[in-house]
């Protein structure tokens, strides 16, 4: 026991009590390095998750705080795409619990706040994202979407981590589109068309470059300067020629792969512009009163979604097309998780137009947060806070 005796300087807050708990823990877990456990209590940075749901940590382990900079160094698109693939399979095979998001409109301040909880059984991932949407934020040099994610122990409900959700929202959305592209697009998609030039456009260019060999990118945004900034920033990063075009039609025509990441109120795509065999990731305009995709494109395409329930609750692209009689709910071929699980066929012809419509769902955030947390613990990244 002598190697476990510590001075009051070693255990400044709960010294004697912690010592007793460690001794009790030793009896039940003789192979655990208790000296490492004890020393972890006095570090400014978290070191390792020594049995995070066991008595010692349940009582004393601090909450881990991860900022955007931390998350940047922890996650890459390749592993995130695989993580989200598994998450969507769990969701579409009944191994995840997730309600439709709770949205609280705030017209007085021109914004809204949303809560998105979820649990994934295989990953033991329990958490909730709180996200705000303020369309005037670019004038304040802030993203339109800001978010925070709480991750909890699936055994005790203890808060394990609080992390920046804004960057996670960007990378999980783009990674899910890349995942859908892998499942639905033709193998060769050299020309990428991008409608929009914000955070999501940048993330999608990065993520899609990981799953397809792209040789040309055609970008259109209502604000030409935003598209030029994207070109200057992203061209060197992905090593692909980026052309800023003067209309949505120019971005769409000739594209083998399309991404729509705008806040458009009315359709910005016309079915007549589409190349046979194109795959579309329709990501923006996820409110019931907004849409990016024209009804004829939806009617022409084989449509897969992230969550059928969420789409039918809040997706203007689908709801307005149904209201206008262009399609019915039955036109939705299935959830992308069903394709990934082998329950649905996905693309069946090279000239087939496929469309993945996403509104963004909580399983994506929670699965990503679990991946980030596990890697942070392993790599000793982040700041611990006792609450």
Shape descriptor: globular
Beta-strand percentage range: 15-25%
CATH topology of the largest domain: Rossmann fold
Radius of gyration: 23 Å
- Under the CATH scheme, which class of the largest domain? Alpha Beta
Assign the structural class, choosing from mainly alpha, mainly beta, alpha/beta, alpha+beta, or little secondary structure. Answer: alpha/beta
Poorly predicted residue ranges? 1-58
Total strand segments: 16
Q: Helical amount among residues, as a percent range?
A: 25-40%
Termini separation comes to: 30 Å
| Major sheet attributes | 8 strands, mixed
What can you see in these coordinates?
The chain has 387 residues and is an alpha/beta fold. The chain has three domains: 2-61, no CATH class; 66-168 and 364-385, ornithine cyclodeaminase, domain 1 (2-Layer Sandwich), CATH 3.30.1780; 183-359, 3-Layer(aba) Sandwich (Rossmann fold). Helix content is 38%, strand content 21%. The chain is built from 14 helices and 16 strands. The protein has helices spanning 15-28, 34-40, 55-60, 68-74, 77-92, 166-184, 199-211, 224-238, 248-252, 295-300, 308-314, 316-323, 336-340, 362-379, and strands spanning 63-66, 96-97, 102-106, 111-120, 125-133, 145-152, 159-164, 191-195, 216-220, 241-244, 257-260, 279-282, 302-305, 332-335, 354-357, 383-385. Strands 1, 2, 3, 4, 5, 6, 7 and 16 form an eight-stranded mixed beta sheet that branches. Strand 9 (216-220), helix 8 and strand 10 (241-244) form a beta-alpha-beta unit. The radius of gyration is 23 Å and the shape is globular.
